[in-house]
Design a protein that fits this description.
This protein is of the alpha+beta class and 424 residues long. The protein folds into 3 domains: 2-41, no CATH class; 107-293, Sulfite Oxidase, Chain A, domain 2; 302-422, Immunoglobulin-like. It has helices at 2-6, 11-19, 27-31, 34-40, 140-145, 173-177, 190-197, 222-225, 390-397, and strands at residues 84-87, 90-92, 110-111, 125-130, 136-139, 149-156, 180-189, 205-210, 217-221, 230-235, 238-239, 249-251, 264-270, 285-286, 292-293, 302-307, 317-326, 332-338, 346-347, 349-351, 360-368, 373-381, 410-413, 419-422. The strands form 6 sheets. It has a 5-stranded mixed sheet. The longest helix is centred in the first third of the chain and has 9 residues, at 11-19. The radius of gyration is 23 Å and the shape is globular. The structure holds cobalt (II) ion (CO). Residues 158, 256, 283, 296-297, 403-404 line the site of cobalt (II) ion.
Length: 424
């Protein structure tokens, strides 16, 4: 591990870091062994001892044959990152442990309103009716015969970061931002299937209904979803996970997760919104004057530093600041990072690929000198929308809301290196 770090892996970063007047872990640190390495590593809240295998292992793996192939793989038993349940109906993705932009299917956040149903795909049907030329019932096999589409997209629950409205509540980035994940979603374009049944000209909204015990239903304006909505049967190269809607899910890239109806069983075309429970009493935004915003579907641009982040502890020396940014309106074009609580900002490097309506990874080199500081990130998307600070967001929205909190996140680093959530 030390050899990789010292030779090729950091060559690009080294140039950047030197240009910034900092130096990376140098060869002398690395040759000094563990001391040098640990000085620059971020130590998790549980410390290195958390990585302990649940199975026995040989002292020297070159001396004994390894294992045979297995029918369905598992991660190393040394790895411990897990979803954390928020309640009986939600669990959060461990963003602090994530790499790149894809979320492993097993760690994709969950939100369901009456549990995860067990559905036999052979019995599952999608009914399309209402203002159509020919009402039709599709089997999964029918849907898989249509031309396929596939794309990477984030899904974010509009309740992500809701606990931050009233003050700095989350201990970790998993608590504050863990209701967003990115997958490759594969299926058939909604418009392809709607062309097959023939949509009547006066149809302007579509009701989508899930086959779970909540029969989750949302109304969607047809013109806004038709270009990008996918009837998905696969996620990250295999059938959807049950908690992500197996065997069929509507995915609308960039829209609040609740509109991406899981266990999809019905689409009804109509002339207006259907005013379901989940778009009247729920998923509305209560404004300071007592009125409520309804049908706020697009997830606005947002970013967060995932490392260092709440609950971690850093040591003086080189620290690469890493994070994620995303926008429901398109591509992220810029992420800036502040090491002084928002007084000055530095451009981060956006890591390829940078895709529309998809998690985007950013990083910036830094040398922590042991001072008390506040780290922040803010992003800009291709429409020119800039992520607001908390003061600006609260001035516009008040603090009555539950959904759509996208303010700049601040992480305080104390002199002992401990990272915690603050709202300066
Ligand atoms: Co909304």
């Amino acid at each position: 591990m030390t050899i990789q770090l010292g030779s090729e892996e950091t060559a690009g970063d080294a140039g950047r870091a030197e240009a910034e007047g900092t130096t990376l872990l140098n060869r002398r640190d690395l040759l000094a062994g563990t001391a040098g390495l640990v000085s620059a590593m971020i130590v998790g809240s549980m410390g290195p001892s958390a990585a302990r295998a649940t199975e026995s292992f040989p002292d020297d793996p070159t001396r004994v044959p390894g294992k045979a192939p297995t029918p369905y793989g598992q991660r190393s038993s040394f790895e411990t990152a897990v979803r954390v349940p928020r309640s009986w109906s939600a669990s959060l993705t461990p963003l602090q442990d994530s790499h790149g932009i894809l979320t492993p299917s097993a760690l994709h956040f969950e939100r369901h309103h009456n549990g995860v149903p067990t559905i036999n795909p052979a019995q599952h049907r999608l009914l399309i009716h209402g203002l159509v030329d020919q009402p039709w019932t599709f089997t999964l096999e029918d849907l898989k015969r249509f031309p396929v589409v596939s794309r990477l997209a984030f899904i974010e629950c509009s309740g992500n970061s809701s606990i931050e409205w009233k003050g700095p509540t989350g201990k970790t980035v998993q608590d504050t931002h863990g209701l967003t994940s990115t997958s490759e979603w594969t299926g058939v374009a909604l418009k392809t299937v709607l062309q097959e049944v023939g949509v009547k000209p006066r149809a302007s909204w579509v009701l989508a209904e899930g086959g779970d015990a909540a029969a989750m239903t949302r109304s969607l304006p047809l013109a806004s979803v038709l270009d990008e909505a996918i009837l998905c049967y696969a996620q990250n190269g295999e059938p959807l996970r049950p908690e992500q809607g197996y065997p069929l899910r509507l995915v609308i890239p960039g829209w609040e997760g609740n509109t991406c109806i899981k266990w999809l069983r019905r689409l009804k075309l109509g002339t207006g919104p259907f005013m379901t429970r989940e778009e009247t009493s729920q998923y509305t935004d209560l404004m300071p004057d007592g009125t409520a915003r309804q049908f706020t579907m697009v997830m606005e641009a947002k970013s967060v530093i995932t490392s260092p982040s709440g609950g971690q502890r850093i040591q003086p020396g080189f620290v690469e600041i890493r994070g994620l940014a995303w926008s429901g309106r398109g591509r992220i074009t810029e992420v800036e990072v502040s090491m002084d609580g928002g007084r000055t900002w530095r451009q981060s490097v956006l890591q390829d690929p940078v895709l529309p309506k998809c998690h985007t990874r950013f990083h910036v080199p830094w040398r922590w000198n042991g001072e008390d500081v506040i780290l922040q990130s803010r992003c800009l998307d291709e429409t020119g929308y800039r992520q607001p600070n908390r003061t600006t967001l609260v001035a516009a929205r008040g603090v009555n809301s539950y959904y759509h909190y996208n303010a700049i996140q601040s992480w305080h680093i104390a002199a002992d290196g401990q990272v915690s959530n603050v709202q300066p």
